[in-house]
Design brief:
The complex is a heterodimer of chains A (255) and B (88). Chain A has 255 residues and is α+β, with helices and mostly antiparallel strands. Chain A contains 5 helices and 16 strands. Chain A has a 7-stranded mixed sheet with strand order 1-2-3-7-6-5-4. Chain A has a 5-stranded mixed barrel with strand order 8-9-13-12-11, surrounded by 4 helices. A 3-stranded antiparallel sheet of chain B has the order 2-3-4. In chain B, a hairpin with a 2-residue loop joins β2 and β3. Classes of the chains: A alpha+beta (255), B alpha+beta (88).
Chain lengths: 255, 88
């Protein structure tokens, strides 16, 4: 599977696991070698705890919640994954693992809508109810490519940020596709009666960025990286506030 | 009593403010103006005397008022769990 430039290999004897992986991430499945390999076995697991927990002991990274447990040697990049054979469980594992990798590569995952215009990616971070899915649906209906209506993946490469195709979607429930686009700008999403783009202060931009960040690694080292990456994004990308009326796709003319 | 910044915190000056992230508690604190100056002073290991001197140099405030403000702010930081008492 190739996601955000990471080549993830999964081997399993469980037909259920393979079936879920192929069905859920079909468009991201690719042939060739893998950077990280997981030997996957099926387990029933429990409903709780629901929130993934990340810990590192020496070179061993462990990510677990009630229905999965992954252990990977970060030196050899080989590991095991015991998981329930359902989409929610494998999604939760992949989100946690990719978030871990992205933060260490200078990027992160953001709760946001993402779309492509003139070959560039525009990201709209917003809290629940801000209009991420509405904006994405309106953009798609107007012919724009939507990267995701829920979680977008940003990576820092060769001095600038790029957005990568995301398999993690919200209401639109699309599959996403592999691909990457240079970041055109970030619009902090808020509800309003009339569409409007305006300037935003650095501190405010940072706060919303951090609130929308997906991170399960609670170690001080991860927090330091997150602050560093967020600061870098603030310096490299154009941030503006976008008051969104949710009325139609005219907003595409404002970005 | 001398104090120090707790070890499990991450902080960084961004866009003129100091952002402090307490990851285990999923909390973020935003410090500006004198608060940011005090925090960075504590991070650099400055004494209260040094901090008061820096405050009076940077802001329109006399030494007595600066010391009183510093004591209140340090108390707030201790109550918020961002500082711990340091054994001398």
């Amino acid at each position: 599977m190739h996601i955000a430039g990471y080549k993830l290999g999964f081997e399993s004897r469980s037909k259920n696991i393979l079936s879920v992986l192929k069905g859920r991430y079909g468009r991201f499945i690719a042939k060739g070698g893998a950077d990280c390999r997981f030997d996957v076995s099926e387990t029933k697991g429990r409903q709780t705890p629901f929130k993934p927990a990340v810990s590192i002991d020496g070179t061993c990274l462990e990510i677990k919640r009630g229905d999965f447990k992954a252990s990977i040697d970060v030196r050899t990049k080989a590991g095991t994954l015991k998981a329930a054979a359902n989409e929610q469980c494998l999604d939760a594992f992949l989100r946690s693992f990719l978030s871990f990798l992205l933060i260490r590569s200078g990027g992160f995952m953001l709760h946001s809508a993402g779309l492509v215009k003139n070959g560039k990616a525009y990201i709209f971070p917003g809290k629940s109810g801000a209009g991420k899915s509405t904006l994405s649906k309106l953009a798609a209906s107007a012919g724009a490519e939507v990267i995701s209506d829920e979680i977008n993946l940003l990576k820092f490469e060769k001095g600038s940020f790029r957005a990568y195709g995301s398999p993690f979607w919200g209401e639109m429930r699309a599959d996403g596709r592999p691909g990457s686009w240079p970041l055109g700008g970030i619009y902090l999403l808020g509800k309003a009666k009339v569409n409007k783009v305006s300037a935003v202060a650095g501190g405010e931009a940072l706060k919303l960025q951090l609130r929308c960040l997906v991170n399960f690694d609670k170690t001080p080292g991860a927090a330091e990286r997150v602050l560093k990456n967020a600061s870098s994004l603030l310096a490299k990308a154009k941030f503006e506030r976008f008051d969104f009326s949710k009325a139609n796709a005219d907003f595409l003319n404002l970005i | 009593m001398t104090v120090e910044i707790k070890k499990n915190l991450a902080y960084r000056r961004i866009a003129g403010e100091v952002f402090v992230v307490d990851a285990p508690r999923s909390e973020m604190h935003e410090l500006n103006g004198p608060a940011a100056l005090i925090w960075e002073g504590l991070a650099a290991g400055k004494t209260k005397k040094d901090l008061v001197k820096a405050m009076t140099a940077e802001f329109e405030v006399d030494g007595e008022t600066a010391l009183a403000d510093l004591e209140i702010f340090i108390k707030d930081l201790l109550e918020s769990g961002l500082l711990s008492a340091k054994s001398d």
